[in-house]
Amino acid sequence: MTALSILDLVRVTENTDARGALNNARDLAVHAEVWGYRRIWVAEHHNMAGIASAATSVVIGHIAAGTKTIRVGAGGIMLPNHAPYVIAEQFGTLAQLFPGRIDLGLGRAPGTDQLTLRALRRTPEAAENFPQDVLEVQAFLAPAGPNQRIRAVPAAGTEVPLWILGSSNFGAMLAAELGLPYAFASHFAPDLLIPALQIYRSHFKPSEQLDRPYAMVGVNIIAAGSDDEARRLATTQQMSFTNIFRGARGLSQPPIDDIETYWTPREKAQAMSMLARSIVGSPDTVRSGIDALVAETGADELMIVSDIYDHPSRLRSFELIAGAASIAR
After folding, report:
1. Hey, is 13 helix, strand or coil?
2. Contact 80, 130 (CB under 8 A)
3. In whole angstroms, what is the distance from residue 183 CA to residue 97 CA?
4. I need a labelling partner for 131 at 20 to 30 A (CA). Which of 10, 235, 324, 325 fits?
5. 1-160 in CATH: which number?
6. Which tens digit of pLDDT belongs to each residue from 30-61?
7. Cα distance between residue 5 and residue 304, in whole Å
């Protein structure tokens, strides 16, 4: 059976501040644990008023402290923004606090704009070192050697599981070469999903962490009592994507009755291209969509985004999704 997990965007809405968004993420994790989701991840984004997960490791600690069994992790840490040593320290500390429950997904995108990248004291060229940086994080999380002079304390020996995140063939090749699990971001970049999975599986080399390929597929799923209700809830995400093209990233907006009044034909084409693999509808519609996606991709796990404005409606969406699918813990 295909496992289900959650990617929480930690959205700040027009009626919820950053603290409310963080507490909603923790509350979602508490419910997800009961509903059988395997893990919940948050992602690193900077200088975005509508996303409260910039200090990703701190947010993970907040969520993990409120839960008992669900895995909590980064989907992901944008490694070129950081010294690998510091990331190892942070996630090794989380692993000491929450043994056996922490994941570290690594990406090479900046997760922000070029001006903010300068504020992070990083350069765009830092992404070129991504493969070596991944190996460096992995080495600091491994047991320290007897003559090792630089140790990531208290990370050494925690062996936090690493994932490679990607939206192109580059990440697929790297994950295959290093023998790591691979998560494809088809919730916003669906075009290369199938080619990337084929590359990953055909080139995979077993490693100490993983003996065979393990592929996670990101997907937007919005569930409600009816198809019409779900489509209305989905307008929040559609407006968010439209705003990206307008250069007007802001707070999450409440759903509207007619999305056609919000976007232009060109904006609609751009947004719907990025959202092409979304599953939106009643439990029956969601069940059919999940079955079709798994049959097409052979996904070992789905990482679900349910970007809904109202927190109770979002909880209901994830509950309906869990009920519609056969969850593998």
Report:
1. strand
2. yes
3. 25
4. 10
5. 3.20.20.30
6. 999 999 999 999 999 999 999 999 999 999 99
7. 6
Cα gap 64→30, rounded to integer Å? 9
3-class secondary structure, 245: helix
Strands 3-8 and 301-305: parallel
Cβ partners under 8 Å of residue 312, min gap 6: none
Strand partners, 78: 107
Q: pLDDT tens-digit profile of 228-276?
A: 999 999 999 999 999 999 988 899 999 999 999 999 999 999 999 999 9
Q: Model-level pTM?
A: 0.95
Cα 86 from Cα 146, distance rounded (Å): 21
Instruction: Show me where the domains of the chain are located.
Output: 1-160, 214-329
Of 244, 253, 322, residue with least CA distance to 31: 322
CA distance 209 to 179: 7
Q: Which residue has the tokens 């996904």?
A: 299
Would you state the structure tokens that stand for residue 7, as one six-digit string? Answer: 């990617």
CA distance 32 to 301: 15
Residue with tokens 């707070």: 251
CA distance 262 to 264: 7
